[in-house]
Write a structure and sequence with these properties.
Elements (H helix, E strand, L loop, with lengths): L1 H6 L1 H20 L10 H15 L13 H37 L5 E3 L6 E3 H16 L2 H15 L9 H42 L5 H43 L8 E4 L2 E4 L2
Antiparallel strand pairs: 1-2, 3-4
Helix pairs in contact: 2-3, 2-4, 4-5, 4-7, 4-8, 5-8, 6-8, 7-8
Amino acid sequence: MELVEFFGADKTIVFMLLFARLSGLIVFFPFYSHNQIPLSVKTLLVFVLCVMLFPLSKAHENSINFLVGEILGEVMLGLSAGLMLTIIFATLQMAGEQISMVMGFSMASVLDPQTGTNSPVIANLINFIALLTFLAFDGHHLLLQFYASSLAVVPLGDFYPRPGIMSYAINLFTNLFMFGFIMSFPIIALSLLSDSIFGMLMKTMPQFNLLVIGYPIKVTIGFSVLIAILAGIMKIMSDLLLKVINDLPALFFFFYSNEIYHRIGFYYYKEG
């Protein structure tokens, strides 16, 4: 109560809504939601960001009347935006699991430090390189810029999910399987080709030991192709992430005009 009396009720409500909006950053967004970052560090980061962005913040009128609902709405902003970026990393996770399966590493699971769950070692390696790529093109700074821009366009307590956001997320999720298969297709195709060759060799030479000779060859081919295409996978991933990050302002900020063109998924449509 002393804090409310010192700052005033209006400023306290603005700070609470700002803290709720920025909390979505450390809960739902890649890198910031990493499990290896202590909760105390995440909380300190949100508090420092609140202090820095507080002069730019404003709440709409009568925000105290629906304070609980407005706090939930601010959390939904982080959930909605973070979900779209998480889908891109889920694409890499699926591609890595497919690669691990065809290379025979599906049982070789390690703890994924980002999610805290067990995942195949190849998928874990690809996700780690993808996270480094995300930091290399300043993706974490672009997310902070997105949050700072949101304060100037969407008043605190005034956000609620629009239908266009859900349509965009559904289209991203639909393309998840396609892009995951595209990323892993070279290794899957060569693995099937090597299996066909080994099958013909076993027909012509029954003494051919597939486990002793074929498995090391298959693993070598898989790693060689993975090294060759890894740069291409990261290029596809970075393009997808940049596309989603660039589309976030159009989805979350410019939904008040009926003549605005929204980019939904991978095509354009005019909102009527």
